Amino acid sequence: MRTTAEAIFWVSAGLLAWSQVGYPLALALIQALIRRPGSPAPLEGDDLPSVTIVVAAYREAAVIARKVDNLRSLDWPSERIKILIACDGSDDGTQQAARDAGADLVLDLPRGGKIATQNAAVRQADGEIVAFSDANALWQPDALRALVAPFADQRVAYVCGRVRFDSGGGSNQEGLYWRYEMVIRGLESRLASVTAGNGAIYAVRRSDYVEVDPVMGHDLKLPFTLVKAGHRAVEAPAAQATELMTPSVEGEFARKRRMMSHAWPIVIRGGLLSPRGYSPLYALMIFSHRAIRYASPILHLLALAMSAVLAPASTFWTLVLALQLLVLIAAGLARWLRWRPLLVLRYYTLMTISIAAGGWDWARHGTPAGWEPPEGTR
Predict the structure, then answer these.
(1) Which pLDDT score is estimated for 174?
(2) For 333-353, b where at least 16 C-beta lie within 10 A, e where not — what string?
(3) Cα 59 to Cα 79: distance, rounded to the nearest angstrom
(4) Which of 3, 83, 159, 297 is the most exposed place for a label (fewest CB within 10 A)?
């Protein structure tokens, strides 16, 4: 019994340590040895491909004019760009606000969810490249040139940019986590392909776009799906956008829980875990960055439970158990003490729980296709 408990603990703890620390270090080592080139420079001149920028919007009347103005200010020939606002059953006047702001095309669609809205928009898009953004994300003037540059490589079908989160002084630690994620994503991109993107700034070659199940998000589903089709999915770090994050870590938990309810269908039945079509390196990336990440709630519970089983047997296991309990206590105290290290622990704890909570929501009643803009992000 003791040997089995120790084995379960070390496997669980080892997988968590590999995913969070060992995997990024391994990628950095491989990159240092192979020295793959970085992203291409932003495009110059006016001989550029045509681009349709799609913004799926639900009740975004308060910010949609600012979004259209932001896209109009991009450094791109006006005759080579089209702004398409796809309204997902908005009942607050988003449609008219988008028209008044000068959007090239506004679709007034029945409520169907973000992915169904994006799918409908792409059917109307005539650009060689289709870029996507959120209504509350603001792009830097040169972002589109940087985002489109990697498509010069015909193997590339998907490119994501980088989003910087503005905390607004709240308790959410998403910005710190996101910077860590960006390091990993950059390494993945240079070595093979990214394992996920972000909704604020990304683009797909129109001819390679794949319509996905309306309950599955583009961020996770599109990159590996296009890799399975023989393409590359890369990052363009110079393509930058800014976005307000959810102010509180509790609000971020609710947002992540909703996101995870969309992610689990992709993990279980969307093909993420099937190695068919993956190179060995990309399969390792999916396992290390995605599969272990989604298994982390179970791995943490196993490590805690096995520590409790083993604690009476030795001082070492008592200390291991005590350390895990102290982390949980510190995460709880962060709600009142607001000390940065405690807030980071609280963020990690709640985000890990959100993975399990999103899975529970999906298993219990499925995932609705619709979405609501998170409070405090507009």
Answers:
(1) 60
(2) ebeeeeeeebbbbbbbbbbbb
(3) 29
(4) 3
Give dist(CA 232, CA 189) in Å, integer: 9
Burial 94-110 (b: 16+ CB within 10 A, else e): bbebbbebebbbbbebe
Instruction: Tell me the C-alpha to C-alpha distance, in Å, between residue 175 and each of 182, 251, 283.
Output: 10, 14, 28
pLDDT at 140 over 90: yes
Q: Which residues contact 154 (CB under 8 A, 6 or more apart)?
A: none
Query: Closest by alpha carbon to 355, among 302, 300, 310?
Result: 300
Task: Please state the length of the chain.
Answer: 378
Q: Is 192 helix (H, G, I), strand (E, B) or coil?
A: coil
Q: Given the structure tokens 């896209």, which residue do they identify?
A: 71
* Domains, the chain, with CATH or none: 1-378 (3.90.550.10)
Terminal alpha carbon distance of the chain: 54
Residue 173 binned pLDDT confidence (cut-offs 50, 70, 90): low
pTM (2 d.p.): 0.92
> What is the edge-to-edge ordering of all strands in the sheet holding 51-57?
105-109, 81-88, 51-57, 129-133, 202-205, 156-166, 232-244, 138-139
Q: Which residues contact 65 (CB under 8 A, 6 or more apart)?
A: 97, 98, 100, 101
- CA atoms in the 13 A half-sphere facing the CB of 327: 13
Give the integer Cα–Cα distance in Å for 103 and 120: 17
**Any idea which residue has 């102010």 for tokens?**
247
Q: Which amino acid is present at 114?
A: K
Over residues 294-349, the pLDDT tens digits come to 999 999 999 999 999 999 989 999 999 999 999 999 999 988 877 778 888 888 99
Residue 234 has what pLDDT? 97
**Residue 133 CB coordination number (10 Å):** 26
